[in-house]
């Protein structure tokens, strides 16, 4: 009987991502999943190189990390034809229509669906087809962003809450099932309130929670101009840190991240090339 290779992870020098080796997506047990979960919680971002698994394999694997969350784009152009759990991210056109979500433009720093009452805990993204260049994905740790804050900034945000409007997306497009607001003050629109510093439900560590944009965000109770200035400072600190991991994709690569303590972004790429990714998303708790 052939013994399975032991699962181990090597942390990248950026302190954000660890590369996992020794995990067999076709042959694993509960102990293997428990070890992956431990690594996921420890590092925040895990990379699996050139896995070449099927959509069914991805769904089966993802199920071990929580119930599935349907991303808003899955109800529009990003739905999968046979696996409703999968969000298709693609710039490929079929019959004159997008065959997936997000196109080829740059995606700026964000935490996934920050405008939900219960944002997802994690995401698993698999490369199906990648362009010769571009479309790289960047990751940072919001643990590190919080822990490296100057003490004065930490004091300024202690106990603070942040409001995110959820009527318009980052491109200014009306979100699904939302109506045009009657007020010009976004603070009066539909939205959610989350702690500006959240405590991870499993690790107990504190992380900054900035969502996905300064526009439409407000530190509750602050004058709007002061809130905007403080958020600008927090965003500059978070995205300006040196510990950023860059994933240059190869077909079959999988990135798995903890949405509660990381942010990510994507480079744009040549629209004449094709990039197809399949993503599964798992449920999380309400930020506290």
TrEMBL record:
Keywords: Dioxygenase, Iron, Metal-binding, Oxidoreductase. GO terms for biological process: sulfur compound metabolic process. Pfam families: TauD (PF02668). Belongs to the TfdA dioxygenase family. Residues 16-281 form the TauD/TfdA-like domain. GO terms for cellular component: cytoplasm. This is Taurine catabolism dioxygenase TauD/TfdA. GO terms for molecular function: metal ion binding; taurine dioxygenase activity. Signal peptide: none annotated. It comes from Agrobacterium albertimagni AOL15.
